[in-house]
Q: What sequence folds into this?
């Protein structure tokens, strides 16, 4: 029995060429272009086989769906879903955890920069409105 990774799962997943029950219910090919670029960035051919891209999409969507379901289970104990639920689930996978915390801190920095930019823009707008003569 071969299973593919994606965290510690209570149920082993059997790798097969058949689409899983989740993938048959969803629209396929949504992430095709992004996955092709990512696969190329990780050393694949610039134009990977459509079957390879479809398989990668199935694996990724299944992993993310499973992760979200687990996070919902954890969050339902408190009554809401939060970022900490996801961080808790990936706590043992240090590269993922480090990347997530890096992206979260970058997101916070961008929010602060936008806030400063918007307040500066508002101040400049007020200054120019006062300086303009009214006819």
A:
């Amino acid at each position: 029995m071969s299973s593919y990774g994606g965290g510690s799962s209570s149920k082993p997943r059997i790798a097969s060429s058949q689409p899983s029950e989740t993938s048959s219910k969803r629209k396929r090919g949504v992430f095709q272009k992004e996955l092709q670029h990512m696969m190329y960035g990780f050393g694949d051919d610039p134009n990977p086989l459509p079957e390879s891209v479809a398989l990668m999409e199935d694996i990724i969507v299944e992993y993310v769906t499973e992760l979200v379901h687990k996070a919902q289970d954890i969050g339902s104990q408190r009554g809401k879903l939060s970022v900490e639920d996801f961080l808790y689930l990936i706590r043992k996978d240090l590269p993922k955890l480090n990347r997530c915390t890096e992206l979260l801190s970058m997101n916070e920095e961008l929010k602060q920069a936008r806030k400063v930019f918007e307040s500066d823009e508002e101040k400049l707008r007020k200054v120019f409105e006062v300086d303009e003569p009214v006819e």
Notes: DSSP finds five helices and no strands in the chain.
